[in-house]
Design a protein that fits this description.
This protein has 125 residues and is mostly beta strands. 12% of the residues lie in helices and 51% in strands.
Length: 125
């Protein structure tokens, strides 16, 4: 009976400690990178424990800073807006395995719609 209990207990330990569990904790911290397209520059975001994302995009051409605000899912899907008022999108995917990030952006602040792609990586916890 003891052997059966130990065998079942060990099996439950392995099942309970699976690395397949998606949690936001792998993404918490600072992420940064560059963006390009009709405009180029750099960006940085901070992912909080509740999945809230805040940050900025800095344009090399206009030297303007644009506010990024949104949420990250437990699987790493980023859905954020650019500007205040919200006149653009910053969407993409953050990966927990290699700590890389990439996606697309659009921005209509201050007037003309601009768009492109972005990429980066996690820089700190």
């Amino acid at each position: 009976m003891k052997k059966l209990f130990l065998l079942l207990f060990t099996a439950f330990l392995f099942v309970g400690c699976s690395k397949d569990d998606d949690t936001i904790y792998d993404f918490i911290g600072t992420w940064a990178g560059t963006y390009e397209g009709t405009e180029k520059g750099d960006w940085n975001i901070v992912v909080a424990t509740d999945g809230k994302v805040t940050g900025t995009m800095h344009s090399d051409q206009t030297t303007e800073n644009y506010y990024i605000s949104g949420y990250l899912s437990e699987s790493g899907d980023l859905n954020a807006t650019i500007g205040s008022p919200e006149d653009g999108e910053f969407r993409g995917k953050l990966t927990r395995e290699d700590k890389k990030a990439s996606g697309t952006w659009t921005n209509a602040v201050p007037a003309t719609v601009r768009s492109g792609t972005w990429k980066g990586a996690k820089t700190s916890k």
